[in-house]
Amino acid sequence: MRGLPEGNEHGHQAVLTLDRDARAEAILAALGNRSIALVGLMGAGKTVIGRRLAARLGLEFVDTDHEIEIAAAMTIPEIFQRHGEAYFRDRECRVVARVIGVAPRVVATGGGAFIHAATRAAVRSGAVSVWLKADFEVLMRRVRKRNNRPILYTSDPEGTMRRLIDIRYPVYAQADATVISRDGSQDQVVQDILAALEAGPLRAAAELGAQPWSGQPRNLEPDE
Predict the structure, then answer these.
(1) At what angle do helices 157-172 and 136-143 cross, to 10 degrees?
(2) Annotated binding residues for substrate, as ranges?
(3) How many other β-carbons are positioned within 10 Å of the β-carbon of residue 18?
(4) What does the alpha-carbon distance between residue 63 and residue 38 come to, in Å, rounded to a whole number?
C-alpha cells in the first residue's frame, strides 16, 4: 500500500498511492479528463478541504494562489501592492488555465477567480466546479485568523465581506455544484462534495459518457 500525500516544494500535493475504493474509481471515471475546481470566498475552506478531497480521490492537489506566488516570486499582498488587482487577475487567469490543463486534479482557486469571465471560462473548459458556500459569520471567524487577505485591508472588513457576498454569491451560484462549508468535520464536507458530484454534474457526464484522460495536456497557456 502506498502512503499519504505530502506537499512538494511547489505546493503540489503528491498523488495518493493507496488503492482507490469503488466510489472513488466511479467518480474518477465520470470525471474523465476534467479536474475538480473549488470556488468560493476567502475563508470558505477551499485549500484545507481541497487537500482532503484530493487525498480521498487519489488526485494531485494544486492551490492556484500558491502557484501565482511561486511564478511571481512575491506574496499575493505584495503583488496587489506593487502591481494592482488587474495585474493579479491576469496572472491568476493564466495560472488557472495552466494547472487545469495538465491532468485531472483538485484545484483550489482564489476567491475572485471565478468572478472574472475569462477565468470562469478556463474553469469550465477543463473542470467540474464546486462552490464551497459559507455564512458570513463562518467566513469572518476564519479570515480573522490570518493577515494575508489584501482585499480586506480596509477600515471596515466586515462591510467589505458583506459587499463581496452580495456581489460574488450570484456568480458562484453558476458553479456545477454547491456544498455548504460549515465549522465541524472537514471530512463531512468532503463527503458532501462527493455526494453533490454524484447527484449532479458527474451523473450527467456518466450518462453521456465521459472522455478518459488521454495523458496529454489540454488548453495549456504559458505563465508569462
Answers:
(1) 120
(2) 65, 89, 111, 168
(3) 13
(4) 10
Measured CA to CA, the distance from residue 148 to residue 172 in angstroms comes to 22
Contacts of 86 (CB under 8 A, 6+ apart): none
pTM: 0.81
Which residues are annotated binding-site positions? 43-48, 65, 89, 111, 149, 168
**Per the annotation, where are the binding residues for Mg(2+)?**
47
Domains and CATH numbers, the chain: 23-200 (3.40.50.300)
Write out the binding residues for ATP.
43-48, 149
Cell numbers of 28, please? 474518477
Helix axes 22-31, 46-57, angle to 10 degrees: 110
Show pLDDT as tens, one digit a residue, over the chain (224 residues): 333 344 444 455 544 444 578 999 999 998 999 999 999 999 999 999 999 999 999 999 999 999 999 999 999 889 988 999 899 999 999 999 999 978 899 999 999 999 999 999 999 999 999 999 999 999 988 888 776 566 666 778 889 999 999 999 999 999 999 999 988 889 999 999 999 999 877 765 555 444 443 334 343 333 44
C-alpha cell at 96: 488557472
